[in-house]
Amino acid sequence: MVVILKQKAKQEEIEILTRQIEAKGVSVSLVVGSDVNILGLVGDTSTIDPSVIEANRIVERVMKVQEPFKKANRMFHPEDTIVDINGAKIGGKKIAMIAGPCSVESEEQITEIAKEVKKIGANFLRGGAFKPRTSPYAFQGMKYEGLELLKKARENTGLPIVTELMSPYDIETFVENVDVIQVGARNMQNFDLLKELGKTNKPILLKRGLSATIEEWLMSAEYIMAGGNENVILCERGIRTFENYTRNTLDLSAVPAVKKLSHLPIVIDPSHSAGKYWMVEPLAKAAVAVGADGLIIEVHNDPANALCDGPQSIKPSKFAKLMEELRVIAAAVGREI
Ligand code: PEP
Ligand code: MN
């Protein structure tokens, strides 16, 4: 339920109304917008009679939220959320560019790629240290050593690091050492992991599950937000369909859908969507045109010998050309890169 307040509502009056609603066992959050102030009610609102609330002189209107996600709902927060990562932002006019290899492979590899993507204009460095591989015999990542190498690359370039967390046991280490915690597609419904992340205030890049609907994905965001962490960035990375030419099917319609339903920023991962390096460029362009707030792209200096996802990785030279072309598309849709 959402309570829209009148412009003239005074602070003390809002507090009295808040306490009155909280006494019914419902949690209330005040959202101060530039045009309108609202109270977002989360919990069992069946005990609340909307007509009683509407009778209050500071209340403009009471609206029921149909969707099961509340804090992630745009009704709770009419303005777009901008997640601030020590000054680097995701959301808003500027499109965030997250680039780097699928996995950290060595100090030389991650440092060299970090320097290249920084020079080209990326705002964040990606790189997996813990890898969720389909086969237990495939490269599982450099783990803690990989995190240390990412930190060195950050020291060298100033780029904030985005990396995947797989286990709740490592949350403290990640909170201490990384800038954005990625929850991979395979863990989107690991509810214990999401609940623990909700207790932190780290920005979370929440990838869409392989077969998750948009509503299920937003409910996963809700798990994190319900714990108090509202720094959630959504990431569409392709979904499972009957089509098997591409690794996954990029659901570009998720961008306008999420923008309508939610205030959270959404980034597109064209690399895992396509699974093919030559499709990264056209899909990235389409993502910017459709309104994505950012892109996460796998860039490798030696894709042929990459330990993971080489076939979908582009070289720095191709990334540089893509950035130039994306700037033109961004300007055409009122954004910048
Ligand atoms: C990745 O970003 O390297 C990754 C494993 O992504 P996803 O969870 O989308 O498969
Ligand atoms: Mn990958």
Automatic annotation (TrEMBL):
Keywords from UniProt, A to Z, are: Transferase
Residue intervals of the DAHP synthetase I/KDSA domain: 88-328
Assigned EC number: 2.5.1.54
DAHP synthase ferredoxin-like domain ranges (all copies): 1-67
Signal peptide residues are none
UniProt GO molecular function: 3-deoxy-7-phosphoheptulonate synthase activity; aldehyde-lyase activity
Q: What is the enzyme's class at the highest EC level?
A: transferase
One Pfam family name from the record? DAHP_snth_FXD
Alphabetical GO biological process terms: aromatic amino acid family biosynthetic process
Q: Which InterPro entries match?
A: Aldolase_TIM, Class-I_DAHP_synthase, DAHP1/KDSA, DAHP_snth_FXD, DAHP_syn_2
The protein, known as = Phospho-2-dehydro-3-deoxyheptonate aldolase
Per the UniProt record, the source organism is Clostridium chromiireducens
Query: Gene name?
Result: aroF_2
